[in-house]
Amino acid sequence: MDRATNDLPAVSPPRSRRRSLGTWLAMAFSLLSIVLTLLLVEVVDIAATGQVEASIGHGLRELALQTSDKLDRGMFERYREVRLLAQRRDLAPGNASQAERRAVLDAIQDTYGFYDWIGMAGLDGRVQVAGRGLLEGADVTQRPWFRNALRGVNVGDVHEAALLARILPKQDGEPRRFVDVAFPYIDRDGKTIGVLGAHLSWQWARAVERSVMAPLAARGGRVEALIVSSAGAVLLGPRDVQGQTLDLPSFHAAQKQDAGFLVERWPDGHSYLVGYARSKGFETYPGLGWTVLVRQTVDDAYAPALRLRERALWSGIALAVLVSVVGVLVARYITQPLGQLVREAGRIRRGASVRLYSASSTYLEVERLSDTLNALVGDLVRGRADLQGLNATLEARVEARTAELERALAAVQASEQRVGAIVEAAQDAFLGVDLRGLVTDWNSAAERMFGWKRSEVLGWPMPEIIVPQRFRASTVRAIDQFRATGHSVLLEKRAERIVINRQGVEFPIEMTAALASGSDGVFFAVFLHDISERKKVDRMKSEFVSTVSHELRTPLTSIRASLSMLADGMAGELPPDVAQLVNLANDSSERLVRLVNDVLDLQKIEAGGMQFERRAQLLLPVAEHALDSMEGYAGQLGVQLQLECSEPARDLAAAIDRDRLVQVLTNLLSNAIKFSPRGGTVTLVLAEHGQCARLAVRDQGAGIPPAFQARVFQRFAQADGADTRQKGGTGLGLSITKSLVEEHGGRIGFETAAGEGTTFMVDLPLVQD
Predict the structure, then answer these.
(1) So what's the pLDDT on residue 621?
(2) For the chain, how far is it from start to end, CA to CA, in angstroms?
(3) What is the spatial distance between Cα 64 and Cα 295, in angstroms, rounded to a whole number?
(4) What is d(CA 610, CA 736) in angstroms, rounded to the nearest whole number?
(5) What is the DSSP-derived secondary structure letter of residue 487?
(6) Any residues with CB less than 8 A from the CB of 737 and at least 6 apart, and which?
């Protein structure tokens, strides 16, 4: 161990200023304790303050209920007292003198000081007697309390003094206001002879309000009570709102339910916690529909909750600090063995011959770490010896690998030169285009084809050089799409395109594009072949076929007509051998006429010269017409025709050229009849298929061989030469049918199975309502 440790390197790396593990643990303990403490404080704060705030709201609700209840009970006492007075016989006229009656009323006023006036008026509305003689002889027929009492309404809402305003002084600088209580009084025979009325001073309500709010005022709580009429007018409350009409959620809530509390903004711009309760009367007193609102500003109301939140916050901070201090002490205790291990490792690095050792009192991880480090130090010494031996052979290996790389580089350069020479010698134009669409390569054939020199186009956008203006946007989109998706339909396929040369002349080319890799990354390798001459030859061929077909049609028509007349007996009865030859010639001429017609139709479709007169129409009559036209042919071959069409499908319509669609259906029906066995059935189906109308022709033939299925719609394609000759046909019908269907914006396909028949399906877009 001594020799091994002395071989350790003496150079030490620069000391880092990173924090120690003890510091990180202390910070982690502190942060974790702070977060957990704050979360705990927040949870407690939310629960406690929520309960406190709810308790404060319920307290204001209870104050509103108490005030409402006291008002109802107080009014009940006055209501019952005035009703009993109206029933006293000694107050009826004739049972006592006016002085005696006045004395009784005076005594009642003295007993309850909030009676500002008590009096009795006859049915004529004249006050007969009143406490302290006030308003005796006055006419009260127009006063609400007098009229309402005779109608059975015994309590009137708060109002200002009218007749008494000039007699009684103001209270607290405000006009006197009363609550009226009045009952009719009767004679011995039960007949109403007048009304006993009392004006209860509204100061009574303020006394009730003070009795309820006084305990809160003594504790320093600033709480205000308001009494609001059923119409929303403030009957009693702070001076800034008294007399106003309130339109507040608390008032409307009180009208809908008995009591509650809420927070709302008042017209003065302050937010209040408001407890509310609605007067419901008491026993025989019906009540006046008063609403009691007890309000307190939100700041004052929730001050206890705020103080509770502050205490919780400070308690949490103190707890977090305490836990952090404990965390620091625990971190130091945990990292002390590691610090000892680090110091011993430092001594080994400085060349000391010691073995890492940890006391048995340390935890298990430190002991295992020291054992592992001792093993690593031993391995390091042995590895250093091996490294010295390896260095002796390293230079030779580097020289050998360098020579190999030089040979590989030379081979790559030679390969690039060969590829460049091949591309340069190619007869076709070659373009290198990067994924941004910029030209990166341009051979001599491209210079001859387009007239641009290589030095002129390198780095320029390819679409701006060789693509006509009308195709540039789509070309740029295709390049962008490949860059985004990594997919293009043009790669590894031949495609015909129109390009433009330096003089602005457009000409057709055949293009092949592939992805290639170079020193600058992936790029498009594009080969272009000028097909102008081939296109010219194709046009000449089409013109020749069209001319020949037209020239053949006229004599063939005459030949066909003549042979048909001979076959029908127009020249008399022919000998059997002659008749057989005439019939054979007639059939061949008909086949030749069909071939010429098919060739002409195909040439018209290719040249875009076939006319289509499409209009919206029902498909069922077209299908029926096609079936009718093929009845004779089907009868000759012993095949039955039938139509399948559900009731909803009878109304299917599409925009079609009737004659062309009939041509499509007769082609499909003719093939189906031709390849169906004698006694078989060919079915034409009309049905709805998604957003399309589907016309399907189903036969009971042998099916299409798998090897032929990919070529069904190609020109002159025939499944079996011998069978085709037996059945007849040109091999153009399905190709023409496919072109006609696609001209209608539709699509054609087929389903087939060996021995089960074939179904050809034509889907045409439905006419949108």
Answers:
(1) 94
(2) 97
(3) 9
(4) 12
(5) -
(6) 663, 664, 667, 668, 713, 748
